[in-house]
Specification:
heterodimer, A: about 75% helix, about 0% strand, B: mainly alpha, flat
């Protein structure tokens, strides 16, 4: 199942960028001659050759994948299969190096967001379900609905604008490397990470609530109650153990939205992570970088889904692998 | 209770499904009703922007640059001296068009891809599903950004990109599984057995049965389209500037002036949040009222509490009656 999907992902990544129309090449030419200072050698044909666009489509794919010798790299077999994702059109730097440099920042942000999201969603969702139709339930659900409706970028803008007007405090919008100042770095990531997490927690909370509600209506919970077990045991040993298993699968499905959130948050808070790299590459039309990021992201998502499936099967004895 | 069991009022209630839907919405889903009111407001603002807005969306009054909220400009002015309220009202049009057109395209595509794939089945289905798998691995926002950078900014592009990619993603999956479920039903087999042409089966038997699911998909998707368009415009890849999009108003040159004129950052976001809230609430209500799987499922459980109360009252009443009878017998 996973191999054909992986293969299709590479085709999609490849084709997405290959559909760049001619006028974009012209636009790139104008942009590049303005900014890079290259002279007469910079022509549309040169650019096409630099992107490998002068070959027939199937051959291009073969070269990009590393099945055919790459004329740009001295006819070596250098492609995706060999772990080579091409070179940035602007920086003369392999895409993979650039990506690895930026990755820790996005992972740090994502981790903080994920921890915040779950830390908010779990207790609120569980409590909301156990005390269904009470004031606290309504409060919790309203919180979830508000978080689902409020766009993250607006929340972030508000956090930047209003504190600076009221208390003249602004979050630092300059990246502090972790090795230079670990405390400052962590503080800097806390705000965007917390915002991302809060924004995500709405959807998560609703799912946790539904799962717990569903389980609380099962026969075995009624049996547990009628056995005379105390509330603590019923909820922790019988209900949560069953309710939170499907929630694990959601953790895997969160990854794409986490990536999307990081593109926006890194842009607003000026963090040089993968999201910002994507954005920069898009504004500069640096398509090799875009392909590279796209491929890495999609593959990560695919393997994350696989990992989730395996974890689920391992946790739930009812699921059997063929 | 009447001897026939069915009363004339029951029959009248079921006559018009649309009227029935609205009656149930008002009776059972107060939040959905609030959502409906917000959505109607959005539609009115979007359709009648020219009449409702006090100024044009790009009408520049230089003397009022960065003016705060006042009687002249209810929500204040932006850095170019454009009335914010007018721009928000015109922005409603963009959100409305993107949401409705995008969701329609997405629903149509999810039907074409999902229903046909589920209907044909076999190797074709396998191939299409692997494509959908691969497609769903791409983080949506990144995918939109890439395609938008290739197509260039514009309303039409935004609608097509969002509609197609959302339709190929989740929508196709849901439609497909619904069609596969229908294929196992007896009426489907019966239609096959008496030799009804495939196209007729599709239109007469499959489509009406997955219609509720498609309506649910359409209505629950609307909010996502509004948010996605806003995010794209916020990042500068959506609707190009002079046209006001709520996401775009929060970005670009506007961002530089937000400290001097915080209302510029506040109101478009409020509009966005309220509208998405309304659309989501209405979508949830539509799902609850339409979804055949939920009909009588969770709803019945919720209703049981009420029934139990009634039952207890009845028992008490009977007990009291019995007590009375006993008392009268004794005396």
């Amino acid at each position: 199942m996973i191999i054909p999907t992986l293969f299709l992902i590479t085709i999609l990544v490849f084709l997405l960028v290959r559909f760049v129309p001619g006028d974009v090449i012209d636009m790139m030419l104008a942009q590049m001659s303005e900014q890079s200072g290259m002279g007469a050698e910079l022509t549309a044909d040169y650019l096409r050759a630099a992107m490998g666009l002068d070959q027939p489509l199937l051959k291009q794919y073969g070269i990009w994948m590393g099945f055919l010798p790459n004329p740009l790299e001295g006819d070596q077999f250098l492609g995706v299969v060999q772990g080579y994702l091409g070179e940035s059109l602007w920086k003369n730097k392999p895409v993979l190096t650039e990506l690895i440099e930026r990755l820790p920042i996005s992972i740090e942000l994502g981790l903080i967001a994920m921890i915040t999201g779950w830390a908010l969603a779990m207790p609120i969702g569980i409590y909301s379900a156990l005390r269904q139709d009470t004031t606290w339930d309504y409060l919790g659900r309203s919180f979830a609905i508000v978080m689902l409706s409020v766009p993250g970028f607006w929340l972030a803008t508000m956090v930047i604008v209003y504190p600076s007007i009221w208390w003249s405090w602004t979050p630092s919008l300059e990246y502090i490397p972790f090795l230079k100042n670990p405390g400052g770095n962590l503080l800097q990531f806390l705000l965007p990470g917390f915002l991302m997490g809060t924004n995500m927690s709405g959807g998560l909370m609703r799912m946790v609530r539904t799962m717990v509600l569903e389980v609380m209506r099962q026969d075995y919970i009624r049996t547990a109650w009628s056995k005379g077990l105390n509330e603590r045991t019923v909820i922790i040993r019988h209900a949560l153990k069953n309710a939170l298993m499907p929630v694990v699968t959601i953790a895997g499905m969160m990854l794409p939205s986490l990536i999307a959130g990081s593109v926006i948050m890194e842009q607003i808070f000026c963090l040089p992570g993968v999201g910002r790299l994507t954005f920069e590459a898009l504004t500069q039309r640096d398509y090799p970088i875009i392909s590279g990021i796209n491929l890495v992201m999609a593959t990560t998502v695919l393997f994350c889904n696989l990992l989730t499936d395996i974890t689920y099967a391992w946790m739930d004895p009812r699921v059997q692998y063929r | 209770m009447a001897a026939t069991g069915i009363q004339s009022s029951d029959i009248r209630k079921r006559r018009n499904p649309i009227a029935d839907f609205f009656i149930r919405l008002i009776k059972e889903k107060p939040l959905g009703l609030i959502g409906l009111i917000i959505v109607i407001t959005l539609l009115l603002a979007g359709i009648f922007s020219e009449w409702l807005a006090p100024y044009g969306y790009n009408q520049i009054i230089l003397s009022d640059r960065l003016d705060g909220p006042s009687v002249k400009h209810l929500l204040g002015c932006d850095n170019l001296g454009r009335d914010l309220l007018s721009r928000i009202i015109f922005g409603a049009r963009i959100s409305m068009i993107v949401a409705i057109a995008g969701s329609a395209i997405s629903t149509a595509i999810s039907f074409m891809v999902g229903a046909i794939s589920g209907f044909i089945g076999g190797k074709y289905d396998m191939t299409v599903q692997r494509f959908v798998d691969a497609w769903m691995c791409f983080p949506p926002l990144v995918l939109y950004l890439i395609v938008m950078s290739i197509l260039g900014p514009g309303l039409m592009q935004v609608i097509i990109v969002l509609g197609v990619s959302m339709g190929l993603g989740g929508g196709a999956r849901v439609t497909r599984s619904a069609v596969i479920r229908i294929k196992e039903d007896v009426y489907f087999e019966a239609a096959r057995a008496i030799g009804v042409p495939t196209w007729t089966i599709m239109m007469r038997h499959v489509l009406p049965n997955i219609l509720p699911i498609m309506i649910i998909g359409f209505s629950t998707g609307l909010g996502g389209f509004i948010l996605a368009e806003a995010s794209l415009s916020f990042l500068g890849f959506g609707i190009p500037p002079p046209v006001p999009s709520w996401g775009g108003m929060l970005s670009g040159t506007g961002r530089q002036y937000m400290l001097q004129a915080p209302w510029m950052a506040l109101w478009p976001g409020v509009a966005l949040a309220v509208v998405v809230y309304g659309v989501n609430m209405l979508g949830d209500a539509v799902r609850d009222l339409f979804d055949p799987r939920l009909r009588g499922g969770l709803g019945r459980f919720g209703g049981l509490a009420g029934h139990q109360e009634k039952l207890e009252k009845l028992v008490q009443k009977k007990k009291a009656e019995a007590e009375k009878q006993r008392a009268s017998l004794r005396s």
